[in-house]
Amino acid sequence: MAVGWFYLSLMVLCSLGSMCILSTIYWMRYWQGGFAWDGTMLMFNWHPVLMVTGMVVVYSAASLVYRLPQSWVGPKLPWKFGHAAMHLLAFILTVLGLHAVFDFHNQRKIPNLYSLHSWLGITTVFLFACQWSLGFAVFLLPWASMQLRSLLKPIHVFFGASILSLAIASVISGINEKLFFSLKNGTNSYSSLPSEAVFANCSGMLVVVFGLLVLYILLASSWKRPELGMQAERQVWGFGLPFQVGVGRV
User: Fold this and answer.
1) Sign of CA dihedral 113, 116, 119, 125
2) Chain centroid to CA 145: how far?
3) Alpha helix ranges (H) inside 38-145
4) pTM over 0.70, yes/no
5) How far from 133 is each of 37, 108, 126, 127, CA to CA, in Å?
6) Calpha distance 69→82 (Å, rounded)
7) Half-sphere exposure of residue 219, counting CA atoms within 13 Å on the CB side?
8) Are the C-beta atoms of residues 231 and 248 closer than 8 Å to each other?
């Protein structure tokens, strides 16, 4: 029953994630003029799309790799590579999203990193970079002892969920900030709730619901990868390729 509920939740999650990305694309194309990569406002429009896609949707998918029942049996190393690769993809999309907004600001002589949204966002990206680097060094490379991995695993899990929460907060504050900048005139002000504001607010609520469901799946004890014994998992590197021996799981 738990596995059935998991797959049902996963289907809902995939639908919500797709809707988050598509609604952000639609908002930028329909109300903000579309996309370009030329330093204009159209370049800025890539920023929300790439940040929602990378820091929220792809990041969440990477975080849920170990919740798949298929990852509970057999060697864990391939799933580690998948987990790290998906997070790296999320980070690349995030960096492109930052480049879009910084380049637009520099072209228009707009100051960078002055708003609460930008502080929250850059803090999230910095923590993400530290999290990925530490995870790669400790959990993927073979040098770390099982004691060190066991010590750092709860911290790694905590910051994984915390970074997702910060990313959602960054997206919500970014949507709010964008609407305040875009809807400033009296006939079409944010407070009058024009159609763009309604749509963008709904997109933000979609991101919140998506994030809450991801966090629920991450925290649900019945959907966590079972610990299969206490013997250490060893990663033996021979002929330049890693392979597993042992039954421990860290």
Assistant:
1) negative
2) 28
3) 41-44, 46-51, 59-63, 77-108, 116-135
4) yes
5) 29, 34, 11, 10
6) 15
7) 9
8) yes
